[in-house]
Specification:
4 helices, globular, about 80 residues, about 55% helix, mainly alpha, Non-ribosomal Peptide Synthetase Peptidyl Carrier Protein, Chain A
Length: about 80
Amino acid sequence: MSGKLTKDEILNKLTSILVEDFEVDKDLITPNASLFEDLDLDSIDAVDLAVRVQQFTQKKIPPENFKQIKTINDVVNAIEELL
């Protein structure tokens, strides 16, 4: 990825990934939404999401960081750190 994306741009990309690939209702995607409780993702979805993030950023989220991700905001922050 060239250039720095804003948090809003990252959130928009993440939202489109969740809606298109995981069939999450767009209205449920808020910064504080829990990936597991609010969006009903499971551990396999979480791995798939990590793969999609890796494809988007061309970088891998370190496993120790990945374990800390619980909310949409956590994902946005992790992507921002990668870029």
